Hints:
Pfam families: BPD_transp_1. One of its GO terms (cellular component) is plasma membrane. By secondary structure, this protein is mostly helical. It has helices at residues 2-16, 22-49, 71-79, 82-113, 119-128, 138-147, 155-158, 165-174, 180-188, 193-204, 206-221, 225-230, 239-244, 251-284.
Amino acid sequence: MAELIKENKKNTVKKRREPITVWSIVRLLINIVMLLIVLSPLLYGLMMSVKPSGELYDPESVWFPKNPTLTNFLDVFEMAPIGTYIRNSMIVAVAITLSQLITSVLAAFAFRFLKFKGKGLLYALILSTMMIPGEAVIISQFLMVSSWGWNDSLYVLIIPFIISAFNIFLCVQALQNFPYEVYEAAKVDGCTDLRFVLTILMPLIKPTLGAMSVQSFLSGWNMYMWPLLVTNNDQNRTVQIGISMLNSVDSQSLVLMVAGVMICMIPSLLIFIVGSRNMVKGLTAGAVKG
């Protein structure tokens, strides 16, 4: 019996190993070329960030600097309060991510398990807001928060984005195949709705929560128009606004701006790399029934 099991394992391993053919090598080379093409802007920005300002317009060092230096990354923090900008962006992105996770999960639970009048209409109204571009309401939002005296604060960058219709839609789709009998059994056992959400529901939709976290964090981190409109001082500016203010006509500020961009890309790249697998699983959850 043991020999039979070993033989089956060997056969399985042999089946999984694909023979190396000319087509597999060509496919690998094509993937490498496509990867270099996709990463070329990032690589060019990295090369430019370590380039001295005197070599910026040198035709002999377009891609690779002759005398690479890391002083540009240090000069960025001396030229502008980049640390404050990064801190503000981190606070805003994390707060938006957590608030959207909480509101989306609770809303999806209500739409999936609770019974109340007008549930379908309310869900349709929430989804209809996805068809309204943010630029169409940004002026009215600015006038509203200005009348409340919320300008130049961090909470004006967080509160308008604590709810996401897209994330609610993702959660509802992830719960479409969740058995309603499980909720009824939990209620019979005395489980409260909040405990059901925290202990049963959320562990089962981890891929969806991962996708929501990545999408919400990147959206909060990369916000530009709204922070530009409602913030006027360095204490409340986010990193995207602060980096754009480094741009000028001289070559020194240009390489510093690129160095600042590379620094500010690190958190978003790390979040995307760590959560990319869950992001793909979460976006496809509920797409196929059965």
